[in-house]
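Here comes an entry:

___
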Amino acid sequence: MDLKTLEYMKERVKKAENLVFRINELNKAIKKIEVAEKTMFSTKQHGNYVELDGFELVKDLKASSIVCIEKEIARLEKELAEL
């Protein structure tokens, strides 16, 4: 194995590790969302946030958030498989 091949493999491993880390973080987020009683949107720039509660609203937001996260997980898993 030459140095160029080793560097290429090293880059792929690093990318794979990052993808696996992100997938794990998204799975943790799903678990947190499933038990959430409130939803909050925040901005980092000015510390502004909007907090929403109400059973039906939160239930709908949770469901749609989980669907979006699952789509992202599927995309990342596909990218990982293609490595």
